[in-house]
Amino acid sequence: MSTSLLYRARAYDTPHDPFTEAATEPGFRYDDDLGLVVSDDGVITARGPFSAVAPAHPDAAVIDLRAGILLPGLVDTHVHFPQVRVIGALGMPLLEWLEKCALPEEQHLASRAYAETIANEFVAGLIAAGTTTSLVFGSHYASAVDALFAEAARFGLRVTSGLVVSDRMLPEPLLTTPERAHAEAMELASRWHGTGRARYAVTPRFSLSASDPVLAACAAVMADLDGAFFTSHVNENPAEVTTVAGQFPDRSDYCDTYDHHGLLDARAVLAHNVHPTGAELEVLAARRTAIAHCPSSNSALGSGLFPLREHVAAGVPVALGCDVGAGTGFSLFKEGLQAYFVQRLLGPVGLPLAPAHLLHLSTSAGAAALGLSDVIGDFEVGKDFDAICLRPPAGTALDIGLRHAGSPDEALGKVFALAGDADVADVWVGGVQIASGGFVRALRPGR
Ligand code: GUN
Ligand code: ZN
């Protein structure tokens, strides 16, 4: 007896990259009455017009979502778990903001009980925003990272994360040694890497706070852990870039501080890269290392205007990150809109972004950056059903806008201009619904 479900919806996805030259207008796929059959293990087994799919699956129970808009689950490639409570501290550049806001708060996560509370708030923030997959910058404390993985597992979220390591330039309680960095990473990974949807990410905070021996320890963890990811920051702020150049006189540039240790490849994601050199872009493209573009953070900290055109021209993969807590919230709709604004503000050197680019950046590009293109990112047959349904409350600007949109392209533009957490009604990960009508629920034990 089949227990498949048949989702009936107005749906968008981006199975083809709208940044490629061969892309055709409007750059997304839209179906105003899509049928998606999802097996009881959460995999999409058939898709097509509802009128064709429904008769072929008479046993599947129909879930009618046509009152809303169905999108693939959003993918955030850079967000800091310990910084939920420091969102919104405005007016400072990166290094001052780290010293005055982020790093004092991060020290509180030494307490497991405090870390559990923060993990709870953090995971709730992701789900409320419709983020089903994320590359999460962890904590400097192994017990806090453990709490994060445990909380994400309660909801079945796809989280890649790890212990943040540093051995200089930060408050003493946040520092470690290369030996401890290696041992604690391996211990955490033995518990979480490959458990459910969790994966381990080797995470030096940034080269400014990580000496060569710590970066070498990171490389050793990467060598010891099959399928681990690597993540850090790069070229975010001019003062940071200058400091790193002084700390690493033998390296050609900031990217080289990581590349020297063999840390850059297709399993690496570096955040920001607002101030790259041409040579760095070439190396990133050659290594297939992705950049997490974090536009609200770059704007809030005044880090600069992201050279997206140069990244695309060089062939560097780019996805989106909200970069909470320097970023101003969890919503990838806001990040998409801010990415669009920044490219507008760059004038002739900016890359004009259409709604399709914003959807791609916040779904399939993130899936690709995280090596998950075979599993998530769009609604292709064979992929897991990770999805969100937007149902704006009646009378809101988004509700009105969607009812009066003249085309699917216009409607998607309104989503990125206007959607926020209050519009994310339902959330599924791997076919399991974890939010319904905006209410979040943990999985039953055993799922
Ligand atoms: N560089 C090193 N640490 C951080 C951080 O927490 N946030 C941002 N935006 N940049 C960083
Ligand atoms: Zn960051």
Descriptive notes:
The protein is an alpha/beta fold and 447 residues long. The chain has two domains: 5-72 and 381-440, Urease, subunit C, domain 1, CATH 2.30.40.10; 74-369, TIM Barrel, CATH 3.20.20. The protein is 37% helix and 21% strand. The chain is built from 16 helices and 18 strands. Strand 17 and strand 18 (439-440) form a beta hairpin. Helix 4 packs parallel to helix 5 (178-192), helix 5 packs parallel to helix 6 and helix 13 (355-362) crosses helix 16. The model has no long low-confidence stretch (mean pLDDT 97). The site of guanine has 11 residues, from helix 2. Zinc ion (ZN) is lined by residues 78, 80, 137, 233, 271, 323.
The CATH topology of the largest domain, please?
TIM Barrel
The CATH level-2 architecture of the largest domain is identified as Alpha-Beta Barrel
Question: Given this structure, which CATH class of the largest domain is correct?
Answer: Alpha Beta
N- to C-terminal distance = 20 Å
Write down the overall mean pLDDT. Answer: 97
Number of structural domains: 2
Strand content: 15-25%
- Tell the overall outline: globular
* Structural class assignment: alpha/beta
Count, helices: 16
Radius of gyration: 21 Å
Helix content: 25-40%
Number of distinct beta strands: 18
Bound molecules: guanine, zinc ion
- Report the CATH superfamily of the largest domain: Metal-dependent hydrolases
Largest sheet: 9 strands, parallel
Low-confidence stretches: none
Pfam families: Amidohydro_1 (PF01979)
GO molecular function: guanine deaminase activity; zinc ion binding
Protein name: Guanine deaminase
InterPro entries: Amidohydro-rel (IPR006680), Metal-dep_hydrolase_composite (IPR011059), Metal_Hydrolase (IPR032466), Metallo-dep_hydrolases (IPR051607)
